[in-house]
Amino acid sequence: MDMIRFLRFSFLFVALFIAMQVGAQTVKIQTQHKVKKSETIYGIAKQYGITQEQLIAANPEMKMPGYELKKGDYINIPEATAAQPTPQAQQQTATTGAPATTNTPTTANPQPATTTVASPQGKTVRVGVMLPLHNNDGDGKRMVEYYRGLLLACDRVAKDGITVDMHAWNVPKGADIQNTLKEKGAAECELIIGPLYTEMVKPLAEFCKANNIRLIIPFSIEGEPTKKYENVFQVYQSNEEMDNMAIEKFTERFISFHPVVIDAADPASGKGKFTQQLRKMFDKKGIKYSLTSLNTSDNDFAKAFDLSRPNIVILNTQNSPKLNETFAKLNILTAANKNINVSMLGYTEWLMYTQAYQDLYFKYDVYIPTYFFYNETSRDTKWVEQSYTRRFNLDMDVNGLPRYALTGFDHGCFFIGGWAQYGAAFIGAKGQTTYKSVQSPLHFKKVGKGLKNANFMFVHYLNNRTIEAISY
Predict the structure, then answer these.
(1) Measuring CA to CA, how many Å separate 12 from each of 15, 16, 19?
(2) Which of 15, 44, 255, 341 shows a CA-CA span of 20 to 30 A to 277?
(3) For 234-251, what is each residue's pLDDT tens digit?
(4) Mean pLDDT, residues 379-396 taken together
């Protein structure tokens, strides 16, 4: 994900935006803070006497994977409210499902924790997890959450007669993974999930290659290990890959629409490159489109739209304030022109704003390109969340999208179920899918020597107030 930054707004516009957020999210904002060099979310929260969770709730962009503070950013500071106590179970690794090494120093090379999910009959799959599994920082806590999802997946596949022999090692940042690879049980794994850090990829991939183990790299790393290693499944998809897929599928789905590209005049946006590529595609294919701006008059803005066929709006920013301006502009347009048919192409980041804008997503037939969809109303989602609460005696962490525990559950069911069914012939292709995903669909294509996730979907908010996930 691109890292998201805020513009410096006029006081009037900030006040209007804050008022909208208060109504939609029940978060009261006391002021805005300009980020200084080396400041952290923890430090800023402490400075204003609030919790990190309260600060993140007031700034939904912070929940996006890859987010980090940048000098000069403006962030909302909420009014302090009573902090929720941390469940004691979260600190007790024996009851959470985190490995027994959770509280070891980050430089340690702990003994593996082993979880075996028994089944009366069927196949056994030997799985290794090599991730930072600790409570010392955000990386560790997120990976513990992911690991719990893997454990729930073990519970699920056991219902189909699959036994999982799972070994988990805490491999924090800066650790020498070579020491972990010497641990008992590592070389006997059939699947290894990890690592989180780029510098560990090569030694782990070489180890897996030497021992005929499939390596599953679940999160973002630098480089393309699939170009060199045929035993690698790389789940992460880059922004460039997602953009290319969105452009490709745009031409298939919206060929009969009139594109309207809106310039939001947002220098903090990372979406200018995407809209430029989209316009080049329009020019190459001879697709006529309109270009307008949020700063133009309402009359001139209306001239960009076609009355005889549906319009598809593309905004060159992912940021919430400019999206809010766009909806205000479209409300004026559609109120004055009842026959105008408007749809919108959004960005994955817009999923973070659903609580504030969902009614408008339905009104304007919004399509959001993404690789995941957290559907809180889904029976499958509710089942996993309830299973999580029963299993670990605490609620699933909701400070982020996609949900890490649901990601772990989907990854576990997909890879363990696929390996149990197909063994070494498992390549993660569409025809080999053995479980329905809850949040993060997967299917792989050969890239170089290895396999890379090629999943893509549009989350579509229909005018009839239903949501569909269109997978490709």
Answers:
(1) 5, 6, 11
(2) 341
(3) 999 888 899 999 999 998
(4) 95
Banded model confidence at residue 349, pLDDT cuts 50, 70, 90: very high
Instruction: Tell me: pLDDT of 200 over 80.
Output: yes
Q: Specify the amino acid at residue 83.
A: A
3-state secondary structure the chain: CCCCCCCCCCHHHHHHHHHHHHHHHCCCEEEEEECCCCCCHHHHHHHCCCCHHHHHHHCHHHHCCCCCCCCCCEEEEECCCCCCCCCHHHHCHHHHCCCCCCCCCCCCCCCCEEEEECCCCCCEEEEEEEECCCCCCHHHHHHHHHHHHHHHHHHHHHCCCCEEEEEEEECCCCCCHHHHHCCCCCCCCCEEECCCCHHHHHHHHHHHHHCCCEEEECCCCCCCHHHCCCCEEECCCCHHHHHHHHHHHHHHHCCCCEEEEEECCCCCCCCHHHHHHHHHHHHHHCCCCEEEECCCCHHHHHHCCCCCCCEEEEECCCCHHHHHHHHHHHHHHHHHCCCCCEEEECCHHHHHHHHHHHHHHHHCCEEEEECCCCCCCCHHHHHHHHHHHHHHCCCCCCCCCCCHHHHHHHHHHHHHHHHHHHHHHCCCCHHHCCCCCCCCCCCEEEECCEEEECCCEEEEECCCCCEEEEEC
What pLDDT shows up at residue 208?
97
Q: What is the share, in percent, of the chain residues with pLDDT greater than 70?
A: 84
Give first-to-last CA distance, the chain, whole Å.
20
Which tokens belong to 11?
A: 């006081």
Q: What is the CA radius of gyration of the chain?
A: 23
Which range has the worst mean pLDDT, 16-25, 46-55, 298-307, 313-322? 16-25
Cβ neighbors of 306 (< 8 A, separation 6 or more) are 258, 290
pLDDT at 82 over 60: no
- Model-level pTM? 0.74
Q: What are phi and psi of 470, to 5 degrees?
A: -100, 105
pLDDT tens by residue, 14-44: 333 333 333 334 467 778 788 887 677 877 8
**Distance between alpha carbon 67 and the CA centroid of its chain, in Å?**
11
**Which amino acid is present at 9?**
F
